Amino acid sequence: MEVYRIDIPEGGGPVSLRACPIKTDKVAFNVYSFRPWQALSAHRHPGSDEVFFVVDGRCLFYVGRDTEALGPNNAVYVPSGALHAILSCERGATLVSVQGPQPVTSIYGNLKYFCPACGLEAPLLEGTRTGDLNTCPRCKTAVRLKEAGEAFDAFEIAPPGGARA
Ligand SMILES: [Zn+2]
Q: The Cupin type-2 domain covers which part of the protein (predicted)?
């Protein structure tokens, strides 16, 4: 039996976001450390399920057309093929996940925008279309979305508080 010591990775850029300390030919065990308001962009794993568990902090979890606020001790099952994204909240978050079977392939899409007021990368739900409205999860600026290649463009229509600009 091998015992692992896993140091929580420092939250950082996309490359250091995830550590994968244990990986076999069947499963991968991952540790994610998010800085405050850091996004894991929407993606899907065509042939592999994934189960997430929130160890610490809070995050918004996006699966398909649903979003939920998760905190410590919450777990989420993401079936193979389902779009999913994570956005940590003001204190950041630590999550672990298990994925299988291996090898896991990941397909990213354009389901995100960058808030024109605060710069946040905000994930979007499956089915988002040009013309849809959204509210920045961090600064609450209301925006209208337009599909534009790798991400949606977002145009401010109301500042935080809701008064029309
Ligand atoms: Zn914002």
A: 38-86
